[in-house]
Amino acid sequence: MFRLWAKEFKDNRMLKDTVICNDNDDTRTHKVFNAIDEVCYQFNLGKPIWLDANVRDFQRYDKTRFTQDNFMEGIDFDYLEIHVIEED
């Protein structure tokens, strides 16, 4: 089972969160991108752009934050944080 936790923060307070579960046989990368697609759909967001810092953080900690720099349109929160909380 693969689970990714996504959280929206503004002024150091969590506004929304969701956990996306995926138990198919895709690669880890596909599972991450599919989960982000689902998060963006649930939160009504455009897809974030992965910058080098996001890739490094995600590879090292299984966690990263997307700020306004990662989105093409304006956002009404400070950052979106994703974190892999379970992986088999």
Helix-strand layout with pairing:
Elements lengths: L1 E9 L2 E10 L5 H16 L8 H10 L1 E4 L12 E8 L2
Antiparallel strand pairs: 1-2, 1-4, 3-4
**Structural class by SSE content:** alpha+beta
Number of helices: 2
Task: Report strand order across the widest sheet.
Answer: 2-1-4-3
Major sheet size, sense and barrel closure: 4 strands, antiparallel
H/E series = EEHHEE
Which percent band covers the strand fraction? 35-45%
Stretches where pLDDT falls below 50 for ≥5 residues? Answer: none
Number of extended strands: 4
Q: What Rg do the Cα atoms give?
A: 12 Å
General form: globular
Helix content: 25-40%
Mean pLDDT: 96
Q: Distance N terminus to C terminus? A: 6 Å
Describe this structure in words.
The chain has a 4-stranded antiparallel β-sheet with strand order 2-1-4-3. By secondary structure, the protein is α+β, with helices and mostly antiparallel strands. Helix content is 30%, strand content 35%. Strand 1 and strand 2 form a beta hairpin.
